[in-house]
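Chain X:
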Amino acid sequence: MSYGAQILRLLPEAILTVFGVAIMLADPLVRRKRALGYLAVGGLVVALLGTVLMVQQGWWGPAFSGHILNDPFAVFFRVLFLLIGLLVVCSSFDYLETNAIHHGEYYALVLFSIVGQGLMAASVELVMIFIGLEISSIATYILAGFRTRDVKSSEAALKYFLLGSFATAFLLYGIALIFGATGTTHLAEIRAALRAGPMGPMAAVAAALMFVGFGFKVSAAPFQVWTPDVYEGSPSPVAGFMSAGPKAAAFAVFLRVYLTALQPVEGWFWLLWVSALLSMCIGNFGALVQTNIKRMLAYSSIAHAGYVLVAFAARSELGVAAVLFYMAAYAAMNLGAFIVVTHFGGEGERHVSIDDYTGLGHRQPALAAVLTIFLLSLIGIPLTGGFFGKFYIFQAALKAKLIGLTILGVLNSAVASYYYLRVIVVMYMREPAPTSPPAARVPGAISFVLSVAAIAVLYLGIFPGDVLQFATRSAAFFR
């Protein structure tokens, strides 16, 4: 296969790389920095069109010595990453201007992070997975500290970098051990080697070490300690981006590695089971006592990682499809909630207390209405994407006879209702206080992004069939 033909299997990533470099080169030459944001949007749209072309032309199959596999699974996540990127970039226009944050590097780093995420989803070789992970992570570390004049932002970036590097070391040790046990780092060859002969303890230790690395990236317990502080200190659009894009990419790799290469290894199922339960309990009970809405959403993110791990623990094609559908629904509802926080926080993100939302339903009814949609979806109320997301997860768990874990998941969902409904009660059932922040005009870009996210949440809750069908076709990779 020619080099050009192989590049076509990485067409979205190639396009984003070109646009990211173009943004960096244009940055010192452009006076109106918002134009760089428009260039980033253009790159994301062109990459989406490139993904559609890739599917229409049938550019499927392996590339680069079999390290990359362009299959429906990779395409599903690529489309998801690109849509998340579009929402994040559009929601960042006014935020960056309000907070006087330099623009060029910001947009380029978002694109480069998505390049890494796309590589992660399409990689079927451990070293290539690590490269994609680092491309995404390094860009995200920098984005977390983009509010350089805020001590919390610098703290968030430093904590994320140090703990992330530590978790990556566990992942690398796991890769080294599995190479020592099997003589290869290609996922299909690892599975064949593990099935061919008796497995020593080295393979089990490797699976446990890699679990630490991936568990950190998806903010699953007991590796979640970084999440509340990093989400609180990061710029709100970046916190929303981290909760959706990098998390989805890490789950994509998690699925590929454990349901293909490490599928013959015994014992990792119980790691999933325990981590799922801990994530749901720590996330939900931690969120109950939060007064800062960003920290509340951070603990909520930990809990939702637990729900996804429930479907993962089912170890079935139905479970994989449930994970994919849930990641799409979660991206829309959680990113939408963070975008509301982005707008409402104002200059310097001063208004991030839940009490600041007192009477928002009277002061800004449209903004309160879309936030209510996102919160109801996070609970899992019918007619929202969150409902069908949890329905498919618990259905997959029940079919896998994970009765106890399903019951505990449902009970945790009931606990989560309290802290989500608390925000809705504050918005609609309390009169605005004299100290409440004044109603600010919602910029056009924010209005557009919130409308798209709300429509996506409702569409997935009313017409889930199309996305579920796409997710089911993508999950066929794991047969």
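Chain Y:
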Amino acid sequence: MTAAAIPSERATPRVAILPWYVAATLVAATSAKVGIIWDISWHRSIGRDTFWTPAHMAIYLGGVLAGLSCGWLALRTTFAGPAQARAASVRFWGFRAPLGAWLGVWGALAMITSAPFDNWWHNAYGLDVKVLSPPHVILALGIWAIQLGSLFLVLALQNRTSDEQRPPPYGVLAAYLVGILLQNATTLTIEQLGFANVAHSALYYKIAACALPLLLVAGARAARLRWPATTAAAAYMLISLVMIWILQLAPATPKLAPVFNPVTHMVPPPFPLLLVVPALAIDLVMRRVGPGRDWLLSLLVGLAFLLVFFVTQWFFTEFLLTPHARNFIFGADQWDYSSRLGPWRYRFWRADTDPVTPRALALAALLAVASARIGLWWGNWMARIRR
């Protein structure tokens, strides 16, 4: 044998390629999220003129793509899958598939079911008064399901990869999907967290303390990555910024009365929360404390998150209400076509009726610690997913 033909003991093991069905669920999760942001902008800029809007098609494309890819995986694993694939599956009604695939199938069915329901709802009751109308709740549950399904599929691949192998980018993909989940959380709480004007009220910090540490901490514990929470927060912010910058370039004309603010282009979403800063604090604390001390860790992480988030958002939102933020980069001071514009745009809302007091911050701190503890429980469970 020649020297070139002799296998080297120091050769790096071959890394498995990302399966196509996992890539399909990643595209589905992204398409659904982009569609939701686009649809909200469509409602704020044009109104609901028809069900067949491009934004709706992007949403339901995500459901169809997730349903087809996960359904195919279930059929293949059940009837033609190798023993290794069947061992890494969950049995349901006689069929076998990974847990993430079952979530994808269920989510797709929920999303498709919500489509005619939403169309009937709008025809019967007109525009939505609140974000969470009954058909939107079904749709939101379906979207969460396909995105969690994609996350679980990625984590199962990550957790089955031995430490001796050169790690594929599963950790990065997992953090990206956690960033999408953060997008979901801020979309559902857009009335409480979305606008800079509410950042000097106590409810703002209580809602943030409930929802955000859970996702950031869970992702930080589950993803094999050096800076998992920071990466997830960066993905969340990047999605928002790209949508802000793209939507402002699209022309739009309101089609439903009354029109008090004649917009000429798509109204972008509000500037995202600066989650990279508290997420960096979470990563630093978790690396410092390490595993095996989760009760202490939840206390330190919860307090660190609230402290850094409070300082960051308190002053950054003051900047967003100034003329310096009224430009293409920050996209501030852009309102729905139905808004009666006035000086209220440059003021903090509910600062007098719901002020930030030491008692309110203490309650927010308790909520942040509890959220972090639940996040650690969930993250520990996700770190053990193998099927």
